[in-house]
Design a protein that fits this description.
Layout (H helix, E strand, L loop, with lengths): L1 H4 L14 H25 L5 H40 L1
Helix pairs in contact: 2-3
Amino acid sequence: MKKMMWWFTKKHADYLVLNRDEQLLLMEEIRKAHLEWSTALSMFDNVVDPDEIDHIIFLINAAEKRYMTLYKRAKLLHKEAHEVRGSDVS
């Protein structure tokens, strides 16, 4: 979780594109998506029926895609915040 906290520390609060509530909402969505992905991965270890295996693989792929999409969004917002901060310094 610490790796995801870098983009909304107080140090960069004035430069963020999202307001504080939106940041917290995005952070919570990332946490939930990671939990869903981890849960799907752990479910895979407990299935034996081939139909269930296919279903779990689908869940794993969907959860991973959701997590990565949200994570990339947070990363992009962090990059934009640094670009804004860099242009303010000049």
